[in-house]
Structure formats: C-alpha cells, structure tokens
Design a protein that fits this description.
heterodimer; A: about 325 residues; alpha/beta; Rossmann fold; 2 domains; 10 helices; globular; B: about 450 residues; two-stranded antiparallel sheet; 6 strands
Chain lengths: ~325, ~450
C-alpha cells in the first residue's frame, strides 16, 4: 500500500523536468519532498493529480495507475495561493467540498470545524479578500483536506505562517497521519521537515539523489555534526582548517562543525584546547537534514528561488520550470 | 488529460457558482435595470414617434400668378405627399402635409424663413406656354420631399397640357395606380406577410440582430474575463485538482450563459409585454382613431423561438472560444487585445445580417447563413425578412451544433494547457501547440 513514483520522465520543450524519477511513499507516512526550486517537485505533484501527463514512467497508488484513482483520493495545496477574492470563506470551502463529492451540509459542518480548529471561525462569512495572507493560506489548507483525502500533496505548506500557526499546522499533520492519511509535502524549511518527516526524497534536476527513512539516510551518510561552544579563542578561521572539518556555521553562540566520516573528534578537542579556548559545550550529533541536503544537492535548499513565480511555472514556449 | 471524469455533477456545481457569482453582483443588477428601462423606451418608441407625427403637419405654400394653375398644383401635391399608410384611405387618418395657396410671394418667403412652412412651390407659366415649377426650401434637391414634388411638377405639366386641349378632345384624367411587389416576401408558417408586417419584421430584425451581437460579445467577454481572473488570482491552481478542464469549461459556459439569459429575459420581458399591449397603450395615448396597424405586428412565438435557439447556439460557440482565449492570458488586461479578432468575426456576422435585413448581400448572405460562426446572425436575419425553407433553418442549426462539438473538443484542450501557462504572451504558435499537445 503505497504511492509509487516509477521512473517518471517529463520534458517541457527542451527542458527535462523529470529524468526517470523513482521513489516510494508508504501509506500513512509524513513524507518530505525536498529539492531546490526547479527540481521537479511541482511537476511530480501535478502528474500525480492527472493535471499533466508523464512522457514516460508511471505513478501508482495502491498498485493502480493514478488515472484510475478517483479524484477525491487526492488533496492538493498548491504553492501559488489563490481563492475567489469576492466569495465568502465558508461558501468557498463548501464549493470545493462539493466538487469532491461531499454533501453540502457535511461540507459546511466539517469546514466550520476546521475553521474553529485553526482559530478563524469568525471569518466564515467574510470575503476571502478581507483575510490576511496567513489566514488565506489556512483556508486553502482546509480546502485541500476538507474531503478527507487519502493522500495530501502540499507544495510549500509552511510559507508565510507565523510560529503559532506553524504549530497548528504541524498538529494537523500529525493528526491526519495518525488517522492513516498519507502526507507528502515540499519545503525549504528543513527544521520543519526534520521534525515531521519519517522519510524524505531529495531531488535535483528531476532525479532522485537521496531517499528513504531520515534515520537511515543520516546513518548512511557517515557524517556527524560537532556542536562546540566556549569562551575565549574560538575562531571560525582556524576551526574550519582543522582535520576532518568540511563545513562550519554559527550555532547557539558557538559553532556547528560538519565532520567527514571517520574524523576523530578527540583530535579536534585537543586542537581547541591547544588554542587556549575553554570549552563549555562539546557534542557530537548526527547530521541535520539540511546538512544532508547540502551534501547531496551541493547548495542550500532555497538557492535557485530567485526566479519570478510566473517563470517558475511550466511554459510551452520557454520550456519553463518545474 | 489522463483522467476521464464524467461531466456531472461537477460541471453543474461550477455552473451554479458562476451563475450566482454573476447574478448577485451589484453591477449585474444595475445594468439589468438600466437596460430593461432602455428596452421599454425602445418598445414604446414607435408609439411616441407616431404621437409626434400626429401632432405635426408640414405646410407647403403654392405661389402662382395664375389662380387656376395654383389650385391644380395644390391638388396634385396634396395627393402625392399624403399617401395613406398601406395605400388604403382611412377616414380617421390625418394628412401629414397641408398644401395651400399663398396670398403673395413675400409673405410666403417670410413664413419659410420663420420656419412656419416647409417649402414654397412657385408655379408660373412662361411666355412659351411651358409651366415652370420651382421649389424653395432649406432641404437639398435630393431629399425625398423634393423628389416627390419633382414628380408633382411633372404631374402639374401633364394636367395643364390636358386642360388646354380643345374642348371635345378631353377625357377625364385617371391617375395610374402604383404598388411595389417584392419578390422576396417573408412568410410565417407558409402565409405571406403583408407590407405592414414585413416592415415590422425589418424593424424587429434589426433589434434582434443588434441584441444578439451585443449579448454574444458581452457575455462571451464575461466568460473570458472569468477564466482570466481565476488564473491571475491563482484560484485555478486549486480548481485544476478539484475538477477536470472539461467540467470547468462546461460549467463556466453554462453558468455564465444562464446568467446572460436571465439578464436577457429580465430586459426583454417588460419590453415584450409593452409590445404585446401596444395597441391598448397606443389607443390610450393616441385615442380611438389608432387604426393603421401596430408597428410590431410581425412578432410571433416562432420568431422568438428562433431568436432563442440562435442566441443559445451562437453564445455557446463564441463562449467556448472566449474561454480558451481567457485561459491563455496571465492578466485580464491582455484580454482586450486577444479578444479583438474574435469580436471582429462576430462583427462580420452582424454586418452581414444587417445587409441581409435590407434585402441585399446576394450569395454571400445565403452562404453565411449556413456557415458558423456567422450563421446565428445571418440566418436569424433571413428568417426575419424573407422566405426561408424549414430545411434550410434546420441545416443551419445542425451545422452550428457540429461546429460547437468540434470547438468544444479543441477549446477544452487549449483551456487545459492554457490555464497552466504563465508568464508568456500568447501567440498563435502557443495556441496551436496547446491544442496539439494537451
């Protein structure tokens, strides 16, 4: 019982959006779909939904090609947010629910329950254009989950949410997972992905570069992170030159050093003490998801996001982005 | 599209939302009320014109040194200018022209300058015996009144010659009768229409064709802007996962078409009621001597049905193309430019129909009355003013339905590709590529 992305290829003109992409998502899992902009995440989701067709390969849910899977199996939160500006929030949610086959009364009842849960029941009768961006995003999330889909595909669900709403959304994720729903989302917020995902797929230029359970990926990497803090002589210049250190970033008043597999932390500690620094923290931990991402993709997760949103859409004449 | 969803119920749900969205907007309400008032004014306009006509009598003064010649000129001009409607004399009918002998040339000239009379007919006998007739007027020589008076001058000459023949050689003068026999008389259920009805049909035809053109272009643009707005507000992103392009397109065309039809009925119904009761209204305003026929006697249920059918089919055909166009723009601003060619196509149909209403156009009118997308306009015009065989109307409708079916397939493909197309200016290549690839 899973979602299989089976060697899917998609081209837009001369641009290859997906290049034999293959991975699997188990049912009832929260799955992170990670990659820089243009890596092929939105295209993959659109093929899942049947909005566009793959040139080669197939996507299957429970062994059935997605063409044969009912539309209401899927819930979709697109990256580009949009609601009917002049339509009431509740009317709008009932409308989407009806399109997915819900009875209007049930849609109304469930929509009100979700609005209450997201602490915006007072906006039920307001026009969408009167809501803040964050609240519009919550309404759009409700539109995606209202019909209780088996698989929820979300493109950047956390963008634009304040910390309180982030927590509300994460709680909703957890609850949906506990009810057996499958959640797949793309994000550039690695902390969120790290906190929520059991498995991830890291894609680059339409190809899978790493995938599987987060724990296994971290172990397989062999890399570790050394979290170091102290008084006095700790300096980024000489710390990054120490043997086995391949990366360094500020971390809670000290530094987080990315270590190569096999690097000896005792040698580093000795070098730090030799520099006359007094150490208040010395902790060797598994690499973060962000470190894994950088290791596989070779650049920070949000690099490449400088394109205007409209250029980041498929386009027949330019080949478009993906 | 990979997935084949049934059209219903989603197309119905989309249509309902579109219908409500349009009909509940204050702009819709305001424009409907305004247009309904305008339509009612147009409906009673013929009565108003008649009322004004009844009040106005144009005076023509005849100046002549020969009193007998002057009286003869008055008689002839009176007869030629005061032709009763329908060619039938009626005791209640009021003559629009009063032709009278003026006391002298100066006072007549003063009256003409003051605007009290429409013209002076100066009739003199020259030394050669020839009668000279001059019309002094502020109108040009080519005006209808001048031309009728030109004919009157000829008549005065004939009668004068006749009167001066030696006694015993004269016979009473009998004017020739004159009627126009049109070879292309409109029929209603096989019954030829009389001149009054045919004239009404021409007037109604113009109203119907203008209405058809305006509604198709305006409601078509509603569809296009609706699609473009969904795209620019990015609602489309949510919609494309909830409904198939076929469902969305059908829902949009049906919903907006229904909203258009609602507005059309709201505008046309009060006007139609006024037209139906125009006899009584006219009688109330003009008095019981209102007898010479209502101006819109040609309006029948069959014609209304014909208008309804050609409106629905014409709108559907154009709306599908407008929707496909709307899906290709990223901003509603670009729509005006893109929709211009389509509005021009509608304009060709409209102008051809206007030519057909005037009885012109020849073979092109016949061809265009079968050829979508011109046929809704042109066949409607032909039905209004000329005899059209039932099979011709049926063939025109069948061809229109076929064109709609083909357009629906192509438009759905273009729409499916177009709604995902951002950031590029639409061109012919993009259209063709979309229709082929999607």
């Amino acid at each position: 019982m899973s979602l299989e992305i089976d060697h899917v290829t998609k081209r837009f003109g001369t641009t290859v959006a997906l290049d034999g992409l293959a991975f699997e998502v188990a049912r009832g899992e929260v799955f992170g779909f990670l990659g820089a902009n243009g890596a092929g995440k939105t295209t993959t989701m659109r093929i899942c939904l049947g909005i566009i067709r793959a040139d080669a390969g197939a996507i299957r849910w429970d062994g059935r090609p997605t063409e044969d899977v009912p539309r209401r199996t899927w819930g979709y939160l697109p990256e580009e947010r949009g609601l009917y500006p002049r339509m009431g929030v509740l009317d709008q949610l009932v409308y989407y629910g009806s399109l997915y086959g819900m009875a209007p009364d049930a849609a109304r009842r469930d929509a009100l329950a979700w609005l209450t849960r997201f602490r915006i029941p007072e906006y039920a009768d307001r026009r969408a254009e009167e809501l803040s961006k964050g609240n519009q995003q919550k309404v759009q999330f409700i539109a995606a989950v209202l019909h209780d889909p088996e698989v929820l595909l979300m493109d950047e669900p956390f963008t634009g949410l304040d910390p309180v709403n982030l927590v509300l959304l994460r709680e909703a994720f957890t609850e949906l997972r506990d009810r057996g729903r499958t959640l797949i989302f793309s994000t550039h917020q690695m902390e969120a992905a790290e906190a929520l995902c059991e498995s991830v797929a890291i894609v680059d230029h339409g190809r899978l570069v790493a995938g599987g359970r987060v724990r296994d990926l971290k172990r397989a990497s062999g890399r570790r992170t050394l979290r170091l803090a102290g008084d006095g002589e700790l300096g980024a210049d000489w710390l990054s030159d120490l043997p086995g250190v391949v990366g360094l970033r500020p971390d809670h008043g000290g530094f987080a050093l990315e270590l190569l597999p096999g690097a000896d932390s005792a040698v580093i500690l000795a070098a730090v003490l030799d520099h006359g620094a007094s150490v208040t923290r010395f902790e060797v931990v598994e690499p973060t998801l962000e470190a894994l991402f950088i290791e596989h993709v070779g650049r920070p997760s949000d690099e490449g996001s400088t394109l205007a949103p409209e250029l980041a859409q498929p386009s027949l004449s330019t080949g478009g982005a993906i | 599209m990979a997935r084949h969803d049934p059209l219903l119920p989603n197309a119905g749900i989309v249509a309902r939302r579109e219908y409500r969205d349009r009909t509940r907007s204050p702009l819709f309400l305001a424009s409907t009320v305004l247009l309904a008032i305008l339509a009612m004014i147009v409906a009673v306009a013929p009565i108003g014109i008649r009322y004004l006509d009844r009040q106005t009598v144009t005076r023509i003064a005849v100046v002549s040194s020969d009193p007998e010649l002057a009286q003869r000129s008055v008689d002839i001009a009176e007869n030629l200018l005061n032709v009763p409607p329908g060619g039938v004399a009626d005791p209640q009918w009021k003559r629009p022209y009063a032709v009278e002998v003026a006391s002298d040339s100066e006072s007549a000239a003063a009256l003409l300058r003051a605007g009290a009379i429409g013209g002076i007919l100066v009739v003199d006998r020259l030394a050669t015996g020839q009668v000279s007739v001059a019309l002094r007027t502020f109108e040009g020589a080519s005006s209808a009144r001048s031309q009728i008076l030109g004919v009157a001058a000829f008549g005065i000459g004939v009668l004068d010659w006749h009167a001066r023949l030696p006694p015993g050689q004269t016979v009473p003068f009998v004017p020739a009768s004159f009627t126009v026999e049109s070879m292309n008389i409109a029929t209603d259920g096989g019954r030829p229409l009389d001149a009054q009805e045919a004239a009404s049909r021409g007037f109604l035809g113009i109203i119907f064709v203008v209405l058809l053109f305006i509604t198709i272009v305006i409601y078509g643009m509603w569809v296009a802007t609706g699609v473009a707005a969904e795209k620019s507000s990015r609602v489309m992103e949510l919609m494309i996962s909830a409904a198939s392009p076929r469902q969305m397109l059908a829902g949009k065309v049906v919903g907006i078409g229904a909203a258009g039809l609602t507005q059309y009925v709201a505008i046309a119904l009060p006007a139609l009621i006024l037209i139906m009761f125009q006899d009584r209204i006219a009688e109330a305003i003009l008095g019981p001597d209102w007898a010479s026929g209502a101006p819109l006697v040609g309006l029948t249920p069959n014609l209304l049905l014909g208008y309804g059918v050609f409106f629905m089919l014409g709108f559907t055909l154009f709306a599908l193309i407008y929707a496909a166009m709307g899906s290709f723009v990223s901003r509603p601003d670009d729509l005006q430019t893109l929709s211009l060619p389509l509005s021009l196509v509608a304009m060709v149909g409209y102008l051809t129909a206007i030519v057909a209403l005037g009885g012109g156009g020849g073979a092109w009118v016949t061809v265009a009355s079968f050829l979508p997308p011109f046929s809704p306009f042109v066949m409607l015009a032909r039905i209004m003013v000329s005899a059209v065989e039932p099979w011709q109307v049926l063939l025109s409708i069948v061809l229109l339905v076929v064109a709609i079916a083909v357009t629906a397939v192509v438009a759905t493909r273009m729409y499916a590709a177009g709604v995902l197309l951002y950031g590029t200016r639409p061109g012919l290549r993009a259209f063709v590529a979309a229709a082929r690839k999607a």
